[in-house]
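Note to self: user wants both folds in one dump. Writing first protein now.
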Amino acid sequence: MKKIFLENNELQGEYIKVNSEESNHIMNALRHKIGDKIVVSNEDDKEYITEIFDYSEGTITLKIKEIFPLQKSDREIILYQGLCKGDKMDFIVQKATELGISKIVPIETMRTIVKLDQGKSGKKTERWQKIASEAAKQSNAPIVPQVSSVINFKEMINSLEKDVKYILFWEEEKNLKLRDLLNITTEKRLALIIGPEGGFDEKEVSLLKEKGIISVSLGEKILRTETAALVASACVMYHFGELG
């Protein structure tokens, strides 16, 4: 069944109004018709099995048939991703969403090749959020991860939260592997920190370690940033029973 998220839609009693953009996609691109079933996830942690009841003036009205509690993970995993060039960020956002990442924070670091001004940054964030939304629908994810605005390294340092376990993935780490850290990790909120092409500068690594952040290795291989982001995410998801 087609799945949508209740964003800018309207819940009215036993009916749900779907915005015109989504309605056009459902009825014209996907060729659904009156009576077809649609799954709707809502911010109230509920999932609705609905039926297309009406389509007029570009808007779909869905009739709620069944309601279930939304099956969400009790663990929040955040991806801090160093900005990378080309369409690599698009790819990372899409695949991280499919894996079940809760939030994606693009960061600008000393070795970041891509530099975005405020205008371009806003447009990129909007694009990445749309990619996340489409990936969540395609993969039947329980939620659409939030893609935050691009922040710089200093802003990341200043925004660290006490109840989050931050994990720095650093190719120069020789002693501690990811699996060994995860075996002693009990926190419900984890943040994975991945550098851009070229990795983190040593000064940045030192600053992160001064804040108590532990660096780990993914093994002997040197992975591209987009590969490292997805391997790290998948390993963490698998360890905590979210995959496999």
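First done. Writing the second protein, which came from a different request thread.
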Amino acid sequence: MPKEVLVGLSGQLILLPLLTAGLIFLIKPQASLALGMILVASCPGGNLSNFMTHHAKGNTALSVTLTTLATSLAVLFTPINFYIWGNLLPETSALMTEIDIPFAGMMLNVFLLIALPLSLGLWVSHKFPNFALKAKKPMKYFSLGFFLIFIVLAFAANFSYFLEYIHIVFFIVLVHNAVAFIGGYSLGSIFGISEYNKRAITLEVGLQNSGLGLILIFNFFNGLGGMAIITAFWGIWHIISAYALSQYWSKR
């Protein structure tokens, strides 16, 4: 289904960063918060979207395809989207100049953190299916634990910042996440995608790999307060919002 795949990838890699830039233009958050929004929008979807799509009675195969392709393309699109929108928007361009992140270094990190493990995982699953089946459950718990540790570290390192700006962060993440879901669903409707497939596309656009975002923040931005808090809170909230949406769809 090339049409559905192309629409889903366009929503993830092009539409979401564009909508994020528009939202930043409207609400004008602090530079570090805006940069966190751009980084979240530049990250690929996480595999949580596959589970949520299955629960929502959407096309799980399409969801898995979109996650795999978006993750593979993230090596290019995550740094490209971040650099384009980070430097283009007046709210963040000054901070981007001050930080001066190496483009090639960011691309290498995304490759090592995302594309390489994905490739190894696919190779192991193909060559050693019995081992992959046994390792599946422990790896699931390991990845969840690893993600939670990064969220705790992000909040611990910026707790005073979080307490001071909690109301702003809460508002930004809720609106940003809602815009992502609405954008994904609307894009599917514009191109005449069926409800079954629109659910997969919507959840793929609305669920981002915030774990990757947090690792990049600690590697390149020294755990910059606004970015870390936005990304960490997104990592919590998108699970809640996606489950609520998938639960609603599962009853229909």
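Dump finished. Worth passing along: The CA atoms of residues 20 and 38 lie 7 Å apart.
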